[in-house]
TrEMBL record:
The family this protein is said to belong to: Belongs to the BCCT transporter (TC 2.A.15) family.
Highest rank taxon of the organism: Bacteria
Flavoprotein among keywords: no
GO molecular function: transmembrane transporter activity
Organism: Dyadobacter luteus
Main localization of the protein described in the UniProt heading: membrane
Protein name per the record: BCCT family transporter
Length: 671
């Protein structure tokens, strides 16, 4: 009992999120496990009704997301940084792309790379078309389902989360995206309900993928002879190994385990793809890739808006593929969006959108062309229809496809390795995301908490796999996509409102009365220009000029009963004035010693005596709202006081405007 109490005390769980989520998760698992037929029948009826009657909601929502993100790229907001103005990316570009790609598509690329194009190619609904047209359409539809539209769904959630988290210093949770609409109510039970919804959706999505993916991995291991059957005991073994590695990876953090495995995964996937390209019909694949991109671009608008209202014979296919995909991507977007946001600090909005929309899409197109078109080419030739006859056995289809290539055992082994790592990267990033939601983005959670979520994911996946309830859980996940699509539309509105205020806040200039600059002290200023700007010089300036100026100004505020505090540090040398407030953010004006690199040409220039080496120092301002500071090395004591006052005047003017509450409301500070 005492151990449980200690675990509870050390946890960072937020009860308002975790308790209702666990109740709902266990309820759905119970119904799916013990009443699978009844539950599946009921949920299928609900899903079919939604897909038939409300499919236009998915179409219009996804269309909005695509054009919304494209508009941001070309707008003035594209240069806004996801963080402070001087933030730099935390991860290299390759690491960033590898992680978001592994989390966003992962195992689906292996599962559907052969099965989806073959399914479209051989679907009876297109039997009246010529063989060539069916092949081109198979590639087109696969591009459509795995291209820009899918990543736009992830991009809207990821961008909204990253923006409100890193720009406005709100918690990394879905509730933060509603601040322009709900204001302080995001910290109420309404905010807990939003995060609980995200937790359940994420949990169901990962559990379903884990359960169905185990079947494919098991089939591959049987294919290469490591396992002799698909018995449940082998599946338990697979889950145990995957989740053990995933928990260890998640516990090591994003910068270690997850980053390494994601990079390893991308390298392995590229090797397998190049093997199929070289050993397959290379010229045909490269040519069809070029044609496929052109066909996709040409049909982009038709595909985007098409609901097949005038083609009732193709509507069942439309519901079972396009609408199901849109629902599936939307249901996964809380998880993928949260993870992408967590690794995207320091990117600009333009960089974020372009990378998220274009790079994974280009890779998906190349991947699906090489695997899908190779499968179609084989099926029409030496396979003689064998691949298309195995559509119902998607878990075995990839390995049967690889049998038609040299060294099939090695390529199948590599495919199994990639599937395995995809599983681990999906699971470990999923564990981190679930824990972040459950703890409302607590800075540091105990490792047992991450283990708890990993073990729970594994146990429920095995229970549902054994009881045949995975289909019901998948259907539940797809149903929840409809309300979340509406929530995502609200994300777009909130993001626009935030960007408008952001642009106004940071573009706000000084009042006209503060812009005059006198040349009265030009001789003193000339001496400072020609002085050596070494570290000692700047530190003396901060201590002898800046600090007395701030102390004198603080006395003036305190005399008027406005609390003002001057604080200083030695490493690096810095001093700041903080004016305290009760309901709005404190005002802070500080100056610190900042190094900068000087051009070698300037160092060698004999007519500039103040520049003696390539490392120079300046006294640079910094502010409580994280705006970029500026050099004040030529300011006198009185000019420093005047500069602080004009910054404070600007601060008060901005704080007086209602629309700037998101920046100045002190109640939004993280605990």
């Amino acid at each position: 009992m005492s151990t449980l109490k200690n675990l509870y005390r050390s946890s960072t769980f937020k009860r308002g999120i975790v308790l209702p989520s666990l109740v709902f998760i266990f309820l759905v698992t119970f119904l799916s496990s013990f009443l699978p037929d009844m539950t599946n029948k009921l949920l299928d009826s609900v899903q079919n009704w939604i897909f038939v009657n409300l499919n236009w909601v998915y179409v219009w929502s996804v269309t909005l997301f695509v054009f919304f993100l494209i508009a941001l790229v070309f707008s003035k907001y594209g240069s806004i940084v996801l963080g402070d103005d001087d933030s730099v990316p935390e991860h290299s570009f390759f690491s960033w792309i590898s992680m978001l790609f592994a989390a966003g598509m992962g195992i689906g690329l292996m599962y559907f790379s052969v099965s989806e194009p073959i399914s479209h190619f051989s679907d009876p609904v297109f039997s009246e078309l010529s063989e060539t047209q069916r092949a081109k359409n198979a590639q087109l539809f696969t591009f459509f389902h795995w291209g820009v539209h899918a990543w736009a769904i992830y991009g809207v959630v990821g961008l909204s989360l990253a923006y409100f988290t890193y720009r406005y210093k709100l918690p990394l949770s879905l509730r933060s995206c509603f601040y322009p609409l709900l204001k302080n109510k995001i910290n109420s039970p309404a905010g807990d309900a939003i995060d609980a919804f995200a937790l359940c959706s994420t949990f169901f999505g990962i559990t379903t993928t884990l359960g169905f993916g185990i079947v494919q991995l098991n089939a591959g291991l049987v294919k290469i002879g490591l396992f002799d059957s698909k018995e449940y005991g082998y599946q338990v073994m697979i889950v145990f190994v995957i989740m053990t590695i995933s928990i260890l990876s998640a516990s090591s953090g994003v910068n270690k385990g997850i980053k390494f495995l994601s990079q390893l995964n991308i390298v392995g996937a590229v090797v397998l793809m190049l093997f199929i390209l070289i050993m397959g019909p290379t010229v045909f694949l490269l040519g069809s890739f070029s044609e496929g991109i052109g066909y996709y671009l040409n049909e982009f608008f038709t595909l985007t808006f098409n609901t097949h209202a005038y083609e009732p014979s193709t509507q069942p296919w439309f519901y079972n593929w396009t609408i199901l995909y849109w629902a599936w991507w939307i249901s996964w977007s809380p998880y993928v969006g949260l993870f992408i946001a967590s690794i995207s600090r320091g990117r600009t909005i333009r960089e974020f959108v372009c990378a998220v929309l274009l790079i994974p899409t280009a890779f998906n197109f190349l991947w699906m062309t090489i695997f899908g078109n190779s499968a179609s080419w084989l099926d029409k030739g030496i396979a003689a229809g064998q691949l298309s006859s195995m559509i119902s056995k998607a878990d075995e289809l990839l390995f049967t496809f690889l049998d038609y290539f040299p060294i099939a055992g090695i390529s199948s082994g590599l495919a199994i390795f990639i599937i395995f790592i995809f599983f681990v990267t999906s699971a470990d990033s999923g564990i981190l995301v679930i824990n972040n939601i459950a703890s409302n983005n607590a800075e540091k959670s105990p490792k047992w908490q991450l283990s708890f979520w990993g073990i729970l994911l594994a146990l429920l996946a095995l229970v549902l796999l054994n009881a045949g309830g995975l289909q019901s859980l998948q259907t539940m996940t797809l149903i929840t996509a409809l309300p979340f699509a509406v929530i995502m539309v609200m994300f777009c509105y909130s993001l626009i409102q935030g960007l408008i205020v952001d642009n106004y806040y940071y573009a706000k200039g000084f009042s006209p009365a503060t812009r005059n600059w006198s040349g009265e002290l030009w001789k003193e200023r000339l001496g400072k220009i020609l002085a050596s700007k070494n570290q000692e010089y700047v530190e003396h300036y901060i201590k002898d000029t800046v600090k007395p100026a701030l102390e004198e100004l603080a006395m003036g505020f305190n005399d008027r009963e406005i609390p003002a505090i001057v604080s200083s540090e030695d490493k690096p040398v810095q001093v700041s004035l903080t004016i305290k407030h009760q309901l709005i953010e404190d005002f802070t004006y500080g100056v610190r010693s900042k190094s900068k690199t000087v051009s070698d040409f300037l160092v060698d220039e004999g007519n500039i005596p103040g520049v003696k080496n390539s490392q120079s120092y300046i006294p640079k301002t910094y502010f409580g709202d994280n705006r970029l500071g500026y050099n004040i090395e030529y300011f006198t004591k009185n000019e420093i006081i005047a500069d602080v006052l004009k910054q404070y005047e600007r601060f008060l003017e901005l704080s007086s405007e209602v629309k700037n509450e998101i920046f100045t409301d002190i109640t939004l500070k993280r605990k």
